[in-house]
Design a protein that fits this description.
Radius of gyration: 17 Å
Strand content: 5-15%
Structural class: mainly alpha
Number of domains: 2
Largest sheet: 2 strands, antiparallel
Helix content: 40-55%
Number of helices: 5
Strand order of the largest sheet: 1-2
Distance between the termini: 33 Å
């Protein structure tokens, strides 16, 4: 991944017409990118830099797991959050294998 500063001026919404700071993200190796990890890293950084403005709880609909949201709010490192999923992911893997058409 490559990140670069990318200012922009929204044409609608709360900040319409105002110059805003943004970030451009470019995927340099699609096979290596773990989108959930990238999202957690970005959320953790935003939570750390802007704790009053960034509302982690609004990510619930994207993440789909309230434990993950609580961990982000508590400042748990993204790699530890991902490690905490291993048991659930292992159980899911066992269940989904039953439904494979080809093995």
């Amino acid at each position: 991944m490559h990140f670069a500063a990318k200012p922009f001026i929204p044409i609608a919404g709360l900040y319409a017409g105002q110059r805003c700071g943004g970030v451009a993200a470019r995927v340099t190796d699609r096979a290596a990118v773990r989108s959930m990890r990238v999202g957690l890293e970005v959320a953790a950084i935003l939570q750390k830099l802007y704790p009053q403005q960034f509302d982690v709880s609004k990510l619930l609909t994207l993440v789909g797991n309230s434990d993950t949201i609580q961990q982000l709010q508590s400042g748990v490192a993204p790699e530890k959050i991902i490690a905490s999923w291993s048991d659930s992911l292992g159980a899911f893997e066992q269940i989904r294998r039953k439904y494979f058409l080809y093995k």
